Every structure is written in C-alpha cells, then in structure tokens.
Model the fold of this input.
Amino acid sequence: MEGRGTRGDNPVLHRGRWRGGDPGRSVGGTRRVHGGGGDRLAPAPQRERRPLLRHPRSVGRGGAVRASLNWLSEYVDLPEIPVGALAERLTLAGLEVERIEHLVAEGVVVARVASVEPHPKAGNLSVCQVETGKGHRTVVCGADNVREGGLFPLALPEACLRGGEVSVATIRSVKSAGMLLSRKELGLEARSAGVWALPADLPVGAELAPLIGFPDTLLSLKITSNRPDLLGILGIAREISALYRAPLREPAISYPEADPAATTLTAVEIEDPADCPRYVARVVQGIADRPSPLPIEARLLKAGMRPLSLVVDVTNYVLLELGHPLHAFDHAKLAEGRIVVRRGRPGERIRTLDGVERDLSPEVLVIADAQRPVAVAGVMGGAETEVGPDTHAVLLEAAAFSPARVRRSARTVGLRTEASLRFERGLSPQAADLASRRCLTLLARYAPVRIARGEVDNFPAAPRARVIPLRQRRVAEVLGVEVPPAEVRDGLTHLGLIMRDQEGGWEVSIPPFRQDLAREIDLIEEVARLHGYDRIPT
Done:
C-alpha cells in the first residue's frame, strides 16, 4: 500500500516482510518465500514456495512483451511441461524469454469496508471494520483512498502472496487480522497510489484469484524487429502451436449491427496511399462512461497498462491480443464526422493525449477531420477528440501506416508509443479489419452499444498474395539434415502458411502477417527453427 503512512507505520509486505510494528522482529509473522523451479504450465499448487522476482515492467520498450500463460491457453493448449522447458524451447526458436514471473493470491477475498476510523496512536493510519461474507474483521490500513462502502482485496491471515504469507499483526497496539491490498502487492503494478478499489458489483467474500486470472505465469519475451506478428498474444500462441503441433483457436468475432449505415456517418479520404495503405472506420453509438470488467482490467495490468474506461481499455486489449493498434475518436467532436489522412502543414499544432502541444510539419503524417489535425497517425491521438465521460458515439480507427513515415513522425514530434513501436516494424493492412471487428465483438459483449451497419474501408490497393517455391532438396542441402517432408509441411502449416504440393517440394503462400518471409531461404530458416537448431549439425 502506498498511502499517507510513513515507512515505519504502513503495514505492508515488502520483500517478504511487514513494514510496521515493533523493530527487531517480523511483525505479522510474514516469512520470505524461497525455492522455486519445477513449476508446470498446468496450474501449480498455490502454496508452492516461489522465488522473489524483479517487479514487472511495462510492455513494449525495445520490443518486449509480457505474455500471460492463462491468456495464451485460450488460443492454444499449452504442453504439460515445466515452464522453464517451455521458455527454453521458445528461446531456441527465436523468442527469447528474458524473465519468468509467477502471480499468486491464495486466501485473498473481496471485502467491503463497513467503517473507517482514525488509528488511536498513529494519525497516518486508519482502523477499518471489513465484511468478508463470514463476519467482520478489524484491519489496520495506511492508504488514504480506503472508504466506507467500498470493495477492496483483503488478504486473510495465512494468505499466500508472491512476497510471502500474511499473518495477524499488532500495529501500534491495534490487532490487524488481515491486509487490504494494492495492485502493487498483488504484483500487478510497479507503483500504486493506494489500495485497489474493486468494482461495486462483485460478491463480498468471493475469492479474488479466479476473478483476476490468478494463479498465472508471465513470460517476458524479447521480440526481434523483423517479427511484429509476435507483438500480440495470438502471434505467440501461433508459435507455440507450431512448435508443439497443437491446434490454434482464433479469436471469436460476432456482433450485431443496426441502422444507420456507417457510410452515412463518416467518410475517409487518404491523400497518399503510400503513407496509409488502408484505413477502416466504424461507428459505435450508445457509448457510456463505464469501467471495464475486472478480467479485462487484470489482463491490462499484467501487461503493464493502466485501465481507464471500457472503450479505451478494449482498444488496448486488442492491441495486446492481436498486436494491431486501434484508436477511438469522439465522433461528435470530429468536424463533419470526416477523416482525412494527410501530411501536417506548416504552422499547424496539436495537443496530444499526454497534454503536450506539438508542432507539425509535412514530415508528420496526421489524421485530420474537415478542419484540423486530430491525431499524429500511428503515434498518439489528440486531446480535442478524446473519448470522455460525455462521449456517446465513437469512430473506431483501424489502419495501416508506412513504417518509415510513422518513424519519421514519431522522431519529429518527439514521441514513441506502444502504437508507433508496432507500426514502425510494419503491420499488415489485412490485419486492420480483423482488429476492428474483434474490438466491436468485445464492446458488444460488455456494453449495450449500437454498432452502425457496415464500415468505411478505404483500401486503395490490396497487396497481392506472395508465393514462394520451397524445394525439399534445398532444405536438406542448407540444413545438412533430412527433415521429413511431412514435418516440413505440418510445421509451416501450423505457422499459418498455405502449402501446395508440387514436384520436389511445395508452393508456399505467405500469410499477410509474415512480412519477413520473402525468399526460399527464409522458409528454410523457419523449418530449422521448428525442427530445432540443437538437432542440426554445425
């Protein structure tokens, strides 16, 4: 907990020990967690002693992704092997696993705070009476955001967290039978401003772990610059599918549409298709300012993103899931409801979502409406069209931008973001529509929105499918080992490539998301990765 308490008074877990209580002894009986190893991808016993790990860092800088095994398991059946073995297999295949983190919260329940009183001997602490569904407990808390009637995570005595176990503690002469938790203490944030205020509709006394997808294991993966398809959960799941020959499950896409048609609500103009090969616009009405469901919030937090509101959170969720950035504009704030993709003009300025006024120029690609720029394309939206509490309809942007142009724009305005990181590496124009439809699926699942019929899809020149011949003889010559034809075909098919038999080999159609595959030697390298570099003679 990070509240107004001082270091010596705030009873929190820190590196396996309570802060607070009498000096010279472990107040609360918390003990450090030691050991580890042998953790399996199947849910491990939550009482297992695990090593303390470095705190989670945010997604993305330099191409790092934090992948939840629980999330991955929605798209591929994970092998029943130690997590270390999976990490080693991924690393050998080119997805370097830099760190493994375990998240656990056994014995943590949803609690309602019935009353909050000042601590009789410490002005920076509060004494709370909390309801757990099985009676009341007295809990000492140092956070300044705890309030009567609110729901918060409560670690009961003997609760198992990633930092250790919680026990009854006496804090300045007041017995505390538990601990209200922040996101930080659950391993979900590097810093927290107080205890975690939970949604008001959760049942009091419910175990928190299944509501937030615990226990879970996070893999921090270093992604090379030529594999932007791996900057999303689905792409990583596809790799696991190919490595272990497991079926891949695609994300569900299903949502109702209603009049009016999107074409009556917006229009899209692209001045130079070289800057923007595709722009898909859809309109969603009936938007209300509401928080996201707890499972959505938890997955964002595990990936290093802070939840904001349902619309914004769902666009970020799809970014993490599919690796393709989206942006939502307040439709009412777009002049004439129009979108124009163009270069910036001398003297133009935009205040981006981070509140900074930025100078534009012809070096910068912008999204504009009929009057002024409303976003730096592929980098960050503008504050004037930001989705907020008074938003009732949004225009959902799903686009593809020139990697070189986004890189130049980001450098010119002095801003790099999760979106620009991905666009700079090159994203498939075909992926834009899938990301848009997935976003609508989630919005329709979690809110009573009205989705305008159809879309405005400005796609001036769809790229032709790439076909590369692959010779079995050449595979053996390059690798120095005979890889069975069935293994070659099966492995590449699991990667999403379409294999057509021909004499001596195959004709291979390359999926749009694998823009790194351009020659026969690239396909042979894929065969080597899946076969295992350790099985190839040097």
Notes: Residues 410 and 475 are 41 Å apart (CA to CA). Confidence is low (pLDDT under 50) at residues 1-61. The longest helix spans residues 429-446.
